[in-house]
Records
---
Amino acid sequence: MKIEDQKLRNIGISAHIDSGKTTLTERILYYTKRIHAIHDVKGKDGVGATMDSMELEKERGITIASAATYCEWKGHEINIIDTPGHVDFTIEVERSLRVLDGAILVLCSVGGVQSQSITVDRQMKRYKVPCIAFINKCDRSGANPFRVIGQLRTKLGHNAVAMQIPIGLENEAEGVVDLVGMKALYFEGDSGETVREAEIPQNLLEEAKAKREELIDAASLFSDELTDAILNEREITSELIYAAVRKGTLEREITPVYMGSAYKNKGIQPLLDGVNYLLPCPAEIENVAMDMNNNEETVVLDSDPEKPIVALVFKLEDGQYGQLTYIRVYQGTLAKGSIIVNIRNGKKVKVGRVVRMHAEQMEDVEYLKAGYIGALFGIECSSGDTFTSPEINLTMISMYVPKPVISLAIVPKDNKSQLAMAKALNRFSKEDPTFKTFVDNETSDTIIEGMGELHLDIYVERMRREYGADVTTGKPRVAYRETITQRSDFNYTHKKQTGGSGQFARIAGFIEPISDADFIFENKVFGGAIPTQYISACEKGFKQSMAKGPKLEFPITGVKVQINDGASHAVDSSDMAFQACARGAFKDAYLRAKPVIHEPIMKVVVETPVEFQGPVMGLLNQRRGMIIGSQDEDVMCVIEAQVPLAEMFGFSTILRSATQGKAQFTMEFAIYRQVPQSIAEKITLEAAENKKSAA
Amino acid sequence: MIKKEMIYRNPLVNLGYDNEDILPVGGFGAVLAHAGVGKTALLVQLALNMMLRENSVLHVSLNDAVSKVDLWYQELFHDIAKKFDIAEINDYWDKIQPYRFIMTFKVEGFSAPRLEERLTDLLQQNIFKPHMVIIDGFKFDDAGRGQLVQLKELARKYSMSVWFTVHTHRHEPPQENGLPLSFLHVADLFDVIVQLAAKGDEIYIKSLNGKSADSAKNDLLLDPATMLIKNGK
């Protein structure tokens, strides 16, 4: 690895879906000589842009999963993590953002800052990712980069400053004026690969001078040296300006803006220079992990290659040669032959092949130092796992995985689809800890579970496209739960005498509600009323009962069972008898413990232009939503509410039509809460009907 | 039980105010203190008291995000109710939470017409009708009297009472009546004025204006550790 660490960049390219992110990535790879031909995103030539490795992405022209690739530009090594442009793949987005140190925020010079740019920007803000902006599509009619810079300021609150001005726009887009070096840049050759420097055209000179003044003014806030130079009228060098802008960018106090047209091969090389000059190297970013030996206390990681290894798996891919595990090393050096431990399950593995990826091509390397991104072969793990040296116990990501709140039955059309589906499900559940799958014993249906309607939709679609599994889906079902609201005693005898050896068991005790655990079993039987060897059978019996409520058949949670008395028979008592007795006792006590239904409540955050605030609140209110609050942020406003998941089906369509497509929302599980009586009655009826139809 | 406990703790009644609501309809109240002494904590306790009595509270914050304001409520509610079972507390919280609505604005984006616009959104669709409004972070130094007069009209129009936090500065010595100079020009608009003053390890809650003449004088303190109101020695 020849590159010095200061010359390493791990960046993401974040943008609204249609702003040309994939085209930009493609051009970057072309100019950095990682690829030798340019393709279109929509696959007109049947090849597709290089970063989109998934079929679905190729077809829709969007990017769902993040591929990582690297390239070199003027002695700097740039790892590009292709971040999803869609807000709903939260885990995917959050993981990508976790591994990047800086980002290019791509905006369309016609569309400007759109609501999704706002979400992407918000995510970057949350992870404190420094960014530079690139205003793309300057060749389109209606292009106006300075309007977009204005929107960056007003809509996103960025202190955006132009690093360039365009030489011509729309059809006449020819190049850009570099305001730091004060020269005109033209992009020549078949694919714009030759950058020609020239004098600034006379008609743009005044504008260029004025914009340079603005740039220097903004930059001077971050450099005393630059301020000195201005005050003393000394020469203001490019180095001075870059150093000041860089400082501001790293603090997220300034957003340098580049412009061009990726499709027309204009302005990409200066943008890459910008990445080199202005975005941070890994050592400039503080990364933290949680110490599992110390109550998840945060620990700051040190990019020292000599320290114990800490690395995060952020993406899995099925390659030709098996599972490819994308990994970023945060501390230490991950080399061939290193022994590392998967913190999630404690399994030790020996590192085999280490490679660096360029979309689907790879290059073998000996090691990956702290700050570097690469991929491993033959490592059994899930996305989001942390690997460390055996002597430490740190995790990069909280081990908390929320339980799924929605489920869907999927049925393959034929045998071939069945096999493909099994393969796909296996892969998805490894990639995404919030995606679960199992077979319902009663209906023999395969059930998939996840965090929302769209979450499951995407996986079903991927199953069809990538794995060729032809599946039909059932109606989505909300994961209701049952729980009890009061204590109820039991004293139950299980007795059966139907020829052969009989069954006898008696258990007494009580069940009561608890809020901090799903199930607690307490044995307070003294004096051998129930022989010790049968206690575990009792526990097993009660636990089995929790899987399905006796009335509505939803899983039961929040129950403490205490047994304090019982009886056995020397011949007729057995494990089986005590298990059956526990199930009977539970059923008996449960119905007297005032059971209620709980439903998943989602935290819904809607971002909408202020003029639609009223209608959006109305929509949430109609859906049994409780609005927690609203946050006015100039022209946009954010409404936060808690809404039952059952009421959120189809909400995205309704929200779009109520707000002319200008609002968008995110949704995550918040809490389980008791269902109101009227709704509970409806659910009870539905459950009874389902039971009938299943029978 | 929680309800009783909370109502018992109605903070300002102990200072000698006439009724539980303290402010009349359309009335203004102010809590004066230096930064970080506990203005928000005190008002959130007043709000919780209102919510428990099934009256709605609109909390307008010009400093903090919705999530932070929500956290104030949750923390103080849990602190007050901590001797009860956690399940009971959570249940009760679920019951009273709908009586609260948080709105946040940027200081420069806040104005009486803007608040009215938002209120109309809520009222027209029958989403929320506040009895009491808290405005936290209002800049008295900059805002002219006109802004407050407009808010007062709004309070009367929608039959609400409004509490403000007033940030006083350490460099500004109080006037004879105990009020800071920057507040004097609007003080007559306020029915109740309460001051929080740190003395040693204690934070005293003093009434500067608005309680009945014959009411007994009680000392109230804000516990600096929990920010909960407690009776003085």
---
Amino acid sequence: MRNRFIVLALACVAASTAFTPAVVAAAPAAKPVTHTVTIEGTQFAPASLTVNRGDTVVWVNKDPFPHTATAKGVFDSKIIAAGKSWRYKATRAGEFQYVCTLHPTMKGTLAVH
Amino acid sequence: MNSLKSVIAGAMSLAAAFAFGQTPAPASGPNDAQIAHIVVTANQVDIDAGKLAEKKGSSKEVRAFGKQMVTDHSGVNKQAVALVSKLKVKPEDNPTSQSLKSGGADNVKKLRGLKGAAFDKAYVDHEVAYHEQVLDAIDKVLVPNAKNEELKGLIVKVRPAFVAHLEHAKMIQSSLKG
């Protein structure tokens, strides 16, 4: 009975430690993740995205006409045709404003940490 | 410019015709079949002008913009036609479509007689006025009167493209002045 209580107590400690943010932060670099930015209605959604270095961002064009995702000097999808997508591996850290060169009202921000 | 105003007038007279007509429903504007026709016509008019600009534009910017108008408005129309056939709506001609069409024909006729910088200016000025006018029609006539949710959704979804085209045309307009 006493042994079982100790085991239970230890399990609780282990569980609570696992969820402590400090432990998460101290973990080695997170596994790369793929994020999606949907292009629809001549807008980027989400318009603002924060990712970690090494992550991949995919812009998916759901509009019936082409768009681009262009941050001058950093990345440029060129034409993303209707129904197509473009992937970018975010290797450079920084906060980048990007536009669609065809539709100057379309603006987005990609922050890479 | 007059032809552009006449489209608004056409839309208004259509609304008036419905308001004072014998239509049993409390309709005060175009029905969905007419709205579908207006959407397709509005896009086609800009495709026709764009095709001309793609060929006759003197600056690279104007030619590229004309090409983009052909691509974007063709894409929208492809989607509109697909929706209309899915909904089994038969687009119905109406005064707004007719004034859009005659306005477009007048514009193309005028543009054919111009070249060089004069062509560029006339085309871009018309694109600015045309997109402003279509946005006005979207907000005042098409969206408020569209009954079918999918038809309304399509118009709402393409609206930002018209705003983007207007901004783009204005940018080219001011660069041509410089």
---
Amino acid sequence: MNPDLDLRLQSMLKALSDVILPAIPAEQSLARDQTRLVMGHLTVLAAHWKHALNYELDSLSLACGLAEELAGMGLERTLRDELSAAVARARALDRSDYDAVSAAHRTLQQVIARVIAGDDSCAPMSAALKTAVLRYSTIRATRERIWHRGAGLDPDTAKLPPIASLFEIRGQFTD
Amino acid sequence: MNAVQGATATARWDRDDIEARITHVLARKMARRNSGAYSARSDAQVTAQLAALFAHEGLSGVRISALARMTGGASKEQFAFTLDHAGAAAAERLVLRMDPWMGIVETCRGREAQLLAAFAGVVPVPPLRFVDADGDYLGQPGLITRMVPGNTSPTDIAASAVSGVGLRFDHWIPKLAPQFVDNLARIHAFDWRSADLTYFDAPAPGTTQAALRQVNWWARVWQQDCEEADPLATLVERWLRENAPVCAQPVLVHGDYRIGNFMFVEPSGEFSAVLDWELAHLGDFHEDLAWSVQRLFGTPRADGELLICGLMPRAEFFTRYVQATGATLDLQTIRYYEVFNAWKCIVINSASACCAARLGQSHQDLVLTWLALCTAVFADQINQLLGDDLR
């Protein structure tokens, strides 16, 4: 691919910083702010695009692990079957199709959320449920903080490893 | 920490116990949902809408000039302008704060206007001039205040921040930190029962209603705006219901008391305004304390210690607050509201921000999707707080 995606993103950033932003009058503050944000988004996207499919695959794999753990917690049969079916579909999909992986992840999370929500009674949730979700969420939040570190919004950005590290240590985060 | 008052295992949560005005504005948001995309208002549109409001207010010979869009918030459209009219002693510089079709939060300009009126003379606030609570004249709900001098960040310290996140105060800290605490103490000591706050419903003292109403409010928003189901958000909603603390005496909670939401003048450093009252409600004072100490609003000092809102370490903030108010802090209740606030921020950043952007119903979708990138910071905070239970 020539010009490749990195070169095109780099060209866009240069045009925004060297030509477009200086041409916007100081009093057009919304336009200036949004131009800077476009530059920020493009910088983050440049760091993301190469890894996006792998990131979604790992996110799906992580959710599958939680779903399988929840399925073993004595759920009502219909919900357990729905959870198992969502996991089975997720495991069987075309792993090279970003949209399919992303959609399967969303679907699986919806079913998981229904399991966690329970029947809306005031009965307290089980310690096992809480433990499983927090264990999952701790890994997920760490991954997301690393994934979005380029935005610089995280107060501990400097302590976060580079995005590439997510895929060097995949086994630690996913099954 | 109390369990649910009067709840039994077979009872169901009352998810509809939400303040009437909040229920109204959330329903109003949903009614606009299929209205298509929203574009930033043009100067001509704003001028015409202001003229309609001022005509309704009975002003004649109205001249609107020097209209300029303002930035800084993540939710409302804001414009500075000069108003002159036949009955005015002099032209005045004003600020219009107006709802887009959807923002990062859906709130009520009428509530905000009542608070600006009530708190005049209590803490520095922008003087209220006009309000159109339901957008009858402005097209969308809006309020107009007098322009207040000052800045949200020091002019001698370089800053690059969105909605105040990431600001530094450095040598301004000795001047600003005491005022930050004192103004919060005054807000919480305010006699709200004697004020005109008809848009507000007070929770019953000595019950868990203060906490549960807040959970219901933001659970409703999550239900309306959720873009992607989130196991942690669902788990935390349950936890918040099961662990709601009793609030002995409700106070006026600012709801967004943090860096970026106060202005001060230079060189004195004197506060000129406490801003952004849109999330205010009657509730538990611990909620404001727990909001101010969130990591995202903090700035690390040179030695690595996090300064809450860029001003002081967490322990010092609590000590100063106790000295200013005489209140007794319940650290378990602080922890509860830290979990609640982080969850609320997930609702706002992950659900509402992305929903508004996907629908194109804000004038700054780009800001909303940018702020959504920090959702995991809040999730991480919750994991640490609730993870203590597992250790």
---
Amino acid sequence: MNSFFLFQGMGLFALVLLCLYRGAFGPGVLNRIAGICAIGTKTLVVLLLMGFIYNRVEMFVDISMVYAFLNFIGTITAAKYLERIGELP
Amino acid sequence: MNVQQIVSLSFLLLGFFFFIAATVGLLRFPDFFCRLHATGKGDTMAVLLSLIGLSLYEGFSLTGLKIVFIAVFMFLAQPTATHAIARAAMRCGQEPWVKGKGETK
């Protein structure tokens, strides 16, 4: 079961790299925000899998929770800022 | 492997399939709104399935309850964030893609 967690973590890391293409080269700032938000959700699951691999899940679950909060707040902040200035930078 | 591990493994594999589908949609769709549609719904479902699988593997404890809490929070927060970005894009004047126009930004 531990090796399965390891391989799923590696697969999720490959998906994070694919999303990073949209985050780095995506045309316009909106595509970048969407890519970074997708990376945040994948990283949350990767953190929990790391906790199960290292047998320290009671510590990693708190880090994962804080990561979920920060990802949500960051996305909402960027969206609110873009909505207030009213044009694409 | 007992029944609990097999059920949690199948949930994790189903979640991984949804992650792959969301990433392919984010990379391949022609327009910002189409990409947001793919990644918003696909990532929500994938996170939900993965966290349910992990909490089943952990069992009934404080850590399992925290994982369920993260799942409930993501189920509420991810559609909210997607809606906020889409509304900001509409207010900023991003044009939706129509058929036959080719790839826009």
